[in-house]
Amino acid sequence: MLKFRLGPTLQKFVYVQAALQNHFNLERHLYSRLNFKLNRAAALAEWIQLLSA
Q1: Global pTM?
Q2: pLDDT (tens digit, 0 to 9) for every residue of the chain, 53 residues total?
Q3: Taking Cα atoms as reference points, which of 13, 23, 27 lies closest to residue 45?
Q4: How much is the CA Rg of the chain, to the nearest whole Å?
């Protein structure tokens, strides 16, 4: 937690964390198991594509 004492460092971390959370949080209770797995696989494939670019 010491590295987050400065405001800009904390803001950068929270910005990245929020983007990841929104991308992978699929609210599983709203989907059937099959749809959840398909959506999760699509999100992971998109993430891998973004990292390889």
Answers
A1: 0.50
A2: 556 666 777 788 888 888 777 767 767 777 788 988 898 899 889 889 988 87
A3: 23
A4: 15
- Neighbouring residues of 37: CB distance < 8 A, sequence distance ≥ 6: none
- Cα 12 to chain center, whole Å? 15
Three-state helix/strand/coil letters over 8-52: HHHHHHHHHHHHHHHHHCCCHHHCCHHHHHHHHHHHHHHHHHHHH
Question: How many Cα neighbours within 13 Å face the side chain of 29?
Answer: 0
The alpha carbon of residue 5 and the mean position of all alpha carbons in its chain are separated, in whole angstroms, by 24
